[in-house]
Every structure is written in structure tokens, then in C-alpha cells.
Amino acid sequence: MTRRALTPASGDEPLKEALRRAQLKPTVQMVATLRVLARAEGEWLGGEDIYRQLMMSGQPVSLATIYRVVKKLVSCGIVVRMWQEQYGSRRALYCQRADEPAPAGLPPGGLRIRDSDANVWIPVGDKNKCEILLDALRQCGISPGHRCEIEIDGMPDLHPAKHEEPQC
Questions:
Q1: How far apart are CA 82 and CA 95, in angstroms?
Q2: Considering Cα of 35, then 41, then 46, then 49, what sign does the dihedral take?
């Protein structure tokens, strides 16, 4: 089997620019990994999925390199990681972060929570709850204006009944 070196694809400039904005050097491996995630269009992929797609496209790269690159992309916020539990084991899945505008009606300084299972944003309308959550985030070193993710595990069912509109 003949292996080709990783080569830049046309249309990679926005990916390279996103990496530069995150103060990362746009290496060929990093751009190729981000390209696979961008082409997934919001679908969650595991490291092995990314590796397989790059290998099938003739771009040799090691699985260790994929995980090293994805770890950097997650730490700078370009990629989001979530854990999938299945058959008693956990698997990390990755997705390129979507630059979503604030939803209509979210006031400046407003707060919303994403329910990943239901794929909906829930605005926090109660000012006291909003202040408590913002204060907790500040205490964790997260400054206003930054996006963050909070993972809650082991909580009772928080999903409202299907007929109710989610709100906090």
C-alpha cells in the first residue's frame, strides 16, 4: 500500500484561521483532523472514527496523533467533547463547536443552559437563579462572556414532561 503525505485541501483557510485565533499552529495534522470534524456537520465522532476517515482518504496519521490533536482542540474550545456511556464503558466523542448566535430574546448578560439530550437551549429567566449560577462560574474562574459546558451526572430525571416548555 502506498501512503501519501498529509496535504492541505482547498477551502482549509477558515480552519487555519480558527486555529490561529486560538493561538494554535495550524499543522497539517491539526487541519486534517479539524477538516474531518467540520465535514461531519455537527455529528459526534470518536477518535477512531476520525482516524479511519483520514486513513481512508489516504492521509497516514497515527491514532495517538489524533488524540493529541483533539485534546489540544478541546482545550482551546474549537472542539467539544462529550462522554457516551454504552454497555458499561465510556467513549469520548468530539464535535466541532458551532458558533451559535445568542437566541432571540436573550438579553445581554443573560444565561441559558443547553440540554444535550433534548438538543434545546433553556433560558434561565429567574434573576436570582441567574446570579447564583454566574457567581458559581466566577468562583471557578470563568469570566463573563465566555462559553462553558457543565456536565451533570447522577442527577434525577431533569427532563420536563413532553407537553411542557422547558424553562429554568
A1: 9
A2: negative
How many Cα atoms are found within 13 Å in the side-chain-facing hemisphere of 83?
Answer: 9
pLDDT in tens, 109-168: 567 777 666 656 677 777 788 788 888 888 887 766 666 667 666 655 555 555 455 555
CA 67 – CA 71 distance, rounded (Å): 6
All CATH 1.10.10.10 domain ranges in the chain, comma separated? 13-96
Q: Are 47 and 94 in contact (CB under 8 A)?
A: yes
Q: Does domain 13-96 have CATH number 1.10.10.10?
A: yes
Count of alpha carbons within 13 angstroms of residue 61, beta-carbon side:
30
Q: What does the pLDDT look like over 103-112, one tens digit per residue?
A: 444 555 567 7
